[in-house]
Amino acid sequence: MADEYIIETFDLIKRYPMGRQELVALKKVNLKFRRGEFSGVIGPSGSGKTTLLNIIGSLDTPSSGSVVVLGEKVETLTPYRSAQLRRRHIGFIFQTFNLLPVYTVFENVEFPLLILKVPPAERRQRVMAALEWVGLADREKSRPNQLSGGESQRVAIARAIVKQPAIVLADEPTANLDAENSYHILDTMVKINQELGTTFIFSTHDEKVIRYLRRKIKLLDGAVVADKHAQPSGRET
Ligand SMILES: Nc1ncnc2c1ncn2[C@@H]1O[C@H](COP(=O)(O)OP(=O)(O)OP(=O)(O)O)[C@@H](O)[C@H]1O
Ligand SMILES: [Mg+2]
């Protein structure tokens, strides 16, 4: 069935030239993700986690191999269609939040909807709904420099989900947060996963995140060395 997997990678290889040698950041990565999974790519620094997420999200291209997202073979799409796929269906959350400092919370979350040309009244309603999800509706007029790290990341989550994407890719989303804020955003993402059915793929080496994952994919030197389903153990008590 065409729709059985929401994401599939086939023999993904990523090489970076390094003088006369080359660095192989991904070595034939074959992974399949089902809709609604809550999974994470785990591995030490330099193991290829960000490279893999960026290729899945078509922010980067593989040296060889193939990525199929929502039934579309990404490397065969024109740059325009690949951008459309990303804008409509994939939300990104980054370690450093990446909010636009001159814009308000509302405007930061609204941004993906402007790109999709959503009409103003619907934009307002969807932005406020996304801010409700992360518990920050009362901060819509604040600017990023008036927010704590945890609040900033919650705004970034709202921005990632406001278009109701099928997939959210979260690259070390808790790396700059303390434990309490990390658990808060993890609980929020679990709720979004369960109630909206959004597929999540994390990259992380944070034990707190790992405890929440339903599937743990281990990368070592660019190769998948383990791929296990797990019962999430949740918050440390
Ligand atoms: N643009 C680039 N040019 C050359 N080498 C790169 C580039 N981007 C990444 N690499 C190399 O590819 C390898 C994988 O990098 P990647 O950023 O995917 O690792 P990571 O697992 O995300 O690490 P971290 O946990 O530190 O974020 C590393 O050895 C890195 O130095
Ligand atoms: Mg990384």
Give a structural overview.
The protein has 237 residues and is of the alpha/beta class. The chain has one domain (7-229): 3-Layer(aba) Sandwich (Rossmann fold), CATH 3.40.50.300. It is built from seven helices and ten strands. The protein has helices at 49-56, 79-89, 105-115, 120-133, 149-161, 179-196, 207-212; strands at residues 7-18, 21-33, 38-42, 64-69, 72-73, 90-94, 167-171, 199-204, 215-220, 223-229. It has a six-stranded mixed sheet with strand order 6-7-8-3-9-10, with helices on both faces. A four-stranded antiparallel sheet has the order 2-1-4-5, with helices on one face. Strand 4 and strand 5 (72-73) form a beta hairpin. Helix 5 (149-161) runs parallel beside helix 6 (179-196). It is globular and about 50 Å long. It starts with 6 loop residues before the first strand and ends in an 8-residue tail after the last strand. Residues 49-50, 171, 203 line the site of magnesium ion. Residues 16, 23, 25, 43, 45-51 line the site of adenosine-5'-triphosphate (ATP).
